[in-house]
Amino acid sequence: MMARKWRNWRNRAALLGLAITLLSSGGCLWLAASAAVGGAAGAGYVYYKGKVSRPYNAGMSDVWAATHTALAELGMKIESEGRDNLSAEVHSRLADGDKVRIYFDVKDSRIPAEGPLTVVAIRVGICGDEAASVRILNQIDLHLTQQPPLPTGLKPQPVPNNWNPIVQTKGTEPPLALPPEPVPVPAGKK
Question: Which residue among 50, 84, 124, 147 is least crowded, i.e. fewest CB within 10 A of its CB?
Fold first, then answer.
């Protein structure tokens, strides 16, 4: 009788030990799996944030030509390209060898008078390089940006060379052109 109770107790202890082992390794497995998923989500977020986009109120042909001119001016050779009516892609490289992928998507503008809207998105390398992407976009801007006509009698105000409306931190704004100082009128004349 005593041997039988001892065997039952030993079996129960073995099952309890097996259950504890499975639960503890299952927890490690759960922890490892959640770390892998979290790491993948973090990597996905970094990849997502690596693309810099800018919309242009211009058709695909105009943006395509401006991009080719900008890349030539920057000394970046086009390695491959593909294009249809609504999307396009250009591949190039930076001087240090990082891949540059430029994507074009044509969309209808929400404002009918603006015509088509071409969104240019640039990714440098895998994780992105915002400074290089913005530099390429700014070069494209030089060939697409058109100043709206000024009302009669107004002269265009020069914008300082160091002011870039795309890459500004909070709190910095372009200097405003001040009106000329008023000329004092002598007290006896009016």
Answer: 147
